[in-house]
Amino acid sequence: MSKRILLILCLCGLGVLPLKAQNTLDQMSLEEKAQCVVGLKRELFPPTNKGVCARTVAFPAYGIPSLTLADGSSGLRLSRRESARATAFPSNMAIASSWDQELVQKIGAAAGYEALGYQVNVLLAPGMNIIRNPLCGRNFEYYSEDPLLTGKIGAAFVKGVQSNGVGSSIKHFTCNNQETNRGHNNALVSMRALRELYLKGFEICVKEASPWTLMTAYNSLNGLPVQESPALVTDILRKEWGFDGLVMTDWSIVPHNTAAQLHAGNDLFMPGSDNQVQDIIQGVGSGAIDMADLDRACAKVIELGRRTWHGTDLEAPDLAPGAAVSRLAACESAVLMENNGMLPLSGGQAALFGVRSYDLVAVGSGSAFVVCPHVVQINEAFRQAGIPTDPELEDLYTKYVAFASADIEANEKVKVHIGLPLLPELALSQTLIEKAAERDDYAVITIGRTAGEGIDRNLEDDYYLTETEKELIGRVCATFHAKGKKVAVVLNLAGIIETESWKALPDAILNVWLPGQEGGAAVCDLLTGAANPSGRLAVTFPVDYFDAPSALDFPYDHPEAGKNYDQTRYDEDIYVGYRYYCTRGKEVSYPFGHGLSYTSFDYSKLKIKASRSKVVVSFTVTNSGGVEGKETLGIYVSAPAGGLDKPSWELKAFGKTRALAPGESEKVSLEIPAGDLASYHPVKGKWVTAAGVYGVRIGTNAEKAILTGKFRRD
Ligand code: BGC
């Protein structure tokens, strides 16, 4: 049966008949309109609800259904207390490292398909804030330090989700770049940085993918709560960018001014309280709220229902397709950071060190947590692939994980729906390491980090390795190397960590980020060469935290009040991430775009054609190595002198080749719309493009040019 016929039948079955929004509004009372734009109280959720985080109020008499909204960024978040499960996909920070819009659209489609099957109308994802500082607790829910990558990858995800008739909610609009005091923090950001960085990703996504909903952030911006800003929500988002969807508030952890929020352009108040309904009724009565604003909001809720309502008679989703997409995504997102001739593995018995080799962090905590059917562990994947592992280490670690997890579950009941704290790393005796180095052919050490909303990460024992981790890496490397055996470190990360002080010790470093439920299988595929890494960093790994341009304007030491708590100055302005490191010539540990492959690529035949409307850059990529592989590439552009102060290079287009066999070539052709060369002039209040000669650099990372060229704009 076609989706359309099914939809009509479902609507009729429930007495939900499409009506023109205006007709409906004419019939609704003020009280009904107020309830329509405020989320349904949790006590009134139907028992069939699977632990989703919000619903809207139904008005069967008008054909308005109760819509269901659920997180989140790594797949559908259902309650752990329910039996229903959903696929956990790699985190956003991971999938951005694939630089692959087609893949991300598939991930969005797979997540949307599961949402549809569970009768979820809106998936509260993706998170699209810019990764400004390495310690933001929600960085793993965001894509990149670069707005172009953020916007394009976000758009691909939204298109995928919405291809199922499920709405996507891009969030958190805007400048929610820290979790400390997230409800009240006031971000002080220049108009130029706002336009070029913090709004740009949202703008690209709105224009390319037309998300059906958007979530406004908790924080303030330049003195005004974002949710109360008509300039942002109405003037820029709706009027300038043409957003035609519904705007909802983030989950109201702090009291706000309902009238101001409604007037600014918010249509749905989440998760919803009686006070908000009363505020609206009284506001209209006193004249503080314009009826036209309430009607607009109500019409948007009705419209969202039309776009996303598929009835309640849907089959629970088959999770097998999601698992396959998740495994592919984990492989494509992994970044091979170092490889000193160790990988791909050439056989023998593995010594799997580190708790995370047996207890992988699949997803982060908070609203991005996903209760999935099973997380494939690294040791399990090795076993399934027939690769022998050290039995004594396996015995020790699996017993520790089983015992300590049971203990944590028993004592952390409150947190179980959003993820558990990580088990601490085990300190091993030198004798045990020596025995393993004797028996085994190589070692793999997995180091992991989690993070989540409501709290930023710490410097000590989080950004920096713990003493136990440093000792583990140091001693395993020294002991195995003394026997002529190699060591790989697998990074299982919710964010950037310090790597400079220890990266020379192991022979290889593979970063799989938070790889989702199939993570162990992906690690095994990548280490053995069944998959060839093609991921590239979507963020920079600085030499030290304090090299980050925002380091001192971020609550890394969690002050109780004042600087970086009440307000945070974005003094680095447009110089975020590689824009800063490249322009100021600051050494980094791993640059934006860094990532190795098991093969090599040659670039040739660069052609640049500039017209009034666009610049077309084409070139040929040839696999010059010995195995099949994909190449990920970026086009960076430098602006002529004389205009506004600009970063030395900015990413203006990116792409990925298909899998190329050894000797095979692909002609790549990428377009840069002329408008993308412009900078936002803070005084003129408009986008301006400098005339002159622009430099073009094609490379895999922000610091290394493989081909160079130029074009002129007058
Ligand atoms: C988070 C949102 C999330 C919502 C619902 C809020 O606290 O900031 O990202 O979608 O909760 O769970």
Which strand order spans the largest sheet, edge to edge or round the barrel?
A: 1-2-3-4-6-9
Bound molecules: beta-D-glucopyranose
Q: Give the beta-strand count.
A: 26
Q: How many H/I helices?
A: 20
- The rounded Rg comes to 26 Å
Describe the sheet with the most strands: 6 strands, mixed
What would you call the shape? globular
* Helix percent band: 25-40%
Describe this structure in words.
With 714 residues, the protein is an alpha/beta fold. Strands 1-2-3-4-6-9 form a 6-stranded mixed beta sheet. Helix 13 packs across helix 19. The N terminus is likely disordered. The structure holds beta-D-glucopyranose. The site of beta-D-glucopyranose has 8 residues, from loops.
Present the secondary structure layout.
Elements: H1 3-13, H2 21-27, H3 30-36, E1 54-55, E2 68-70, H4 92-96, H5 101-117, E3 122-123, H6 147-162, E4 167-173, E5 186-188, H7 191-198, H8 200-209, E6 213-216, E7 220-221, E8 224-225, H9 230-240, E9 246-249, H10 258-264, H11 274-286, H12 291-308, H13 320-333, E10 335-339, E11 350-353, H14 378-384, H15 391-411, H16 430-439, E12 442-448, H17 459-463, H18 467-482, E13 486-492, E14 508-511, H19 519-528, E15 541-542, E16 567-569, H20 578-584, E17 588-590, E18 601-610, E19 614-623, E20 632-638, E21 650-656, E22 665-673, E23 679-681, E24 686-688, E25 692-699, E26 707-713
Parallel strand pairs: 2-3, 3-4, 4-6, 5-7, 5-16, 6-9, 11-12, 12-13, 13-14
Antiparallel strand pairs: 1-2, 7-8, 10-14, 15-17, 18-19, 19-22, 20-21, 20-25, 23-24, 25-26
Helix pairs in contact: 3-11, 5-6, 5-13, 6-8, 13-19, 14-19, 16-18
Beta-D-glucopyranose binds at residues 53, 71, 124, 171, 250-251, 367, 453.
